[in-house]
Amino acid sequence: MSTRAYPPVPPRQMLPARTLNLPGRGEVFLRDGGGDGPPVMLLHGWMASADLNWHGAYDALVAAGYRVLAIDHRGHGRGMRPLTPFRLSDCAEDAVATVRELELVPAIFVGYSMGGAIAQLIARDHPDAMSAIVVSATAQHWQDPQTAPLWRWMGVLGVSLSLAPRAAWKAGFRRLKIPVSPDTSWWPAELGRHSARDMAEAGRELSRFDSRPWLRAVSVPAASVITTKDRSVAPAKQHELAAALGGPVFEAPIDHLEVSSRHADYNGALLDAIAAVRPREGVARR
Questions:
Q1: What is the C-alpha separation between 18 and 170, in angstroms, rounded?
Q2: Which among 92, 102, 220, 253 is most buried, taking Cβ atoms within 10 Å?
Q3: For the chain, what are the domain ranges?
Q4: According to the model, what pLDDT value does residue 191 have?
Q5: What pTM does this model have?
């Protein structure tokens, strides 16, 4: 059945949205739950958006007392579209500039999948802006023989999304055995916001990312949430990252793309991980 049979209605009420102008960088699309709790910046994964990745966690984090922030990265969702190649380092700078502009440093940065690579770069380059890092469903690198063949298809991906975006996303849904229904009709609408060029270049960036030479020198409080049924980022690779970062490890029994659809099985581990690295009451922001 065609997705046109169902309106693209989000599965829940999202956090308030705002557009923030970052001097010298551009405008970022930001979800901001408000309040005066400890700031938590959520960094989404590749081919997702803040809402696609994190909508299942928004309410739980707000209820736990956090100031929840989530941006769309460059080329993803409503993220900025600069006339420059997609770079993970630029996404890291955007996220840091956002919390600085809001005078919310240091913040807890939570990175899922590609967002975990971005969070690692922030820990390396801007430790003063980060009170703690939580990583999930991510790794130190994607250069292993099992993953390498994927990156050779980035050019084909870019062309497919440019020429026939709806057909490409529908084909992806079929491959993942995701049925078209009122519950999923919002997904392709969100995916259609992406930049095809940036999707492909983001894949190439992930193929080049490797934090192994420098991550153990990073010294910020850290915790990890392992997605134990993950078929995209092997749990063994996630544990390698957790060992390099140090800190407590929590487990969520979900696959990579189930972070929001099975939020009841994920959010407990996420909340425990953030609580484990949450700054003590009375620690002043810089």
A1: 30
A2: 92
A3: 3-277
A4: 84
A5: 0.91
